[in-house]
Amino acid sequence: MAGALSGAQETTRLDVLFGGYTAPDADRFTITHTVGVRTTALNGLVIRRGAGLGGLAFAHAIPAVAPDYLHDTSISRDYDRAVAAEDLRSVAALPIVIDGEARGIVYGARRHAGSFTEAEVKSVSQAAGAIAFRVAVDDAVTKQTQAVETAEYLRSVRSAPTDREWEQVRVAFADLREFARSMDDPTAQAELQAILAKLTPEVHGDSPVLSAREVDVLALVALGLSNREIGERLNLELETVKSYLRAAMRKFGAHNRVECVALARSSGQLP
Predict the structure, then answer these.
(1) How far apart are CA 210 and CA 249, in angstroms?
(2) Based on the domain organization, do 131 and 192 belong to the same domain?
(3) What's this model's pTM, rounded to 2 decimal places?
(4) DSSP H stretches of helix in 63-162
(5) Residue 194 in domain
(6) Cα 62 to the chain's mean position, in Å?
(7) Same-domain check for residues 19 and 99
(8) What total number of domains does the chain contain?
(9) What CATH number has the domain bearing residue 88?
(10) Spatial contact of 215 and 173, defined as CB atoms under 8 Å apart
(11) What does the alpha-carbon distance between residue 148 and residue 254 come to, in Å, rounded to a whole number?
């Protein structure tokens, strides 16, 4: 927009050019760019549909011109203070139109009253058209990006394991860990550990690292086993199970078993 406004001012020699645009179906837009201003009165001004000269052009998607803005009885007085502060007298509002809808306005203004020439209106209109083209391109890119992101999300949802499938993975993880400890063959044990590694993502670099026994205990906690049942499964004393659980909770700063399991999963140490 800045380039379009500057180009129109060089062509027309109008005192001030300003404008802004918004999203589709909006009932207002904000003045975001100005050229030739003396004050900040126009910057950030919110133009409502139907209010003032620009609001009329915005509402009807057609040009609107006021040769003597402050004395024009056909427009509302919502923005007189800003117009007077900038000492504007004649104002032309050219809509930024995309697919038949006004998405904003480019204004051309002078500090004296009087009509605009056809060439001046055409130049400001061309600036509005150039901006409309760029906005339309941005809209198309945004829609395409959103479509790709949506498709990717839906694809991931469709391919994501169900809760039941995840539960089966977690049971298999716990069983494999127990089986791996019972094996005397180092090669077979290493192969099992490699399989276990595939069931969990890599540990995040800033996460605390659990010991093998702490992972064993949490893997069974995740299955809903009590401390006593975990001890029976792992051939550990009840107090030993509690000790491993406390150590894991302390590492993560967890307040309970459930939170500790959730944090272990988020850190990549449990499936």
Answers:
(1) 10
(2) no
(3) 0.58
(4) 80-85, 118-159
(5) yes
(6) 33
(7) yes
(8) 2
(9) 3.30.450.40
(10) no
(11) 38
Record the tokens describing residue 102, joined without a space. Answer: 């006004």
Find the radius of gyration of the CA atoms of the chain. 34
Largest Cα–Cα distance in the chain?
A: 98
Length of the chain: 271
Question: Could you say which DSSP state residue 71 is in?
Answer: G
User: In a structure prediction context, what are the per-residue pLDDT tens digits for the chain, which is 271 residues long?
Assistant: 999 999 999 999 999 999 999 999 999 999 999 999 999 999 999 999 999 999 999 999 999 999 999 999 999 999 999 999 999 999 999 999 999 999 999 999 999 999 999 999 999 999 999 999 989 988 888 877 777 777 765 665 555 556 666 777 777 888 788 777 777 777 777 777 777 777 766 666 677 889 989 998 998 998 889 999 999 888 899 999 999 999 999 999 999 999 999 999 888 888 8
3-state SS assignment for residue 53: helix
User: Parallel, antiparallel, or unpaired for β 16-21 and 33-35?
Assistant: antiparallel
11 and 135 together in one domain:
yes
Question: DSSP code of 104?
Answer: E
- CA distances from residue 81 to 63, 69, 84 in whole angstroms, order as listed: 22, 12, 5
Domain that holds residue 59: 2-145
**Token pair for 16:** 């001030």
Note whether 89 and 171 are same-domain residues.
no
Q: Are residues 228 and 185 in the same domain?
A: yes
* C-alpha of 229 from chain center: 46
SS3 47: strand
Read off the tokens for 37. Answer: 């201003």
Considering 119, 145, 171, which residue would you say is the last residue of a domain? 145
Give domain status of residue 151, yes or no.
no
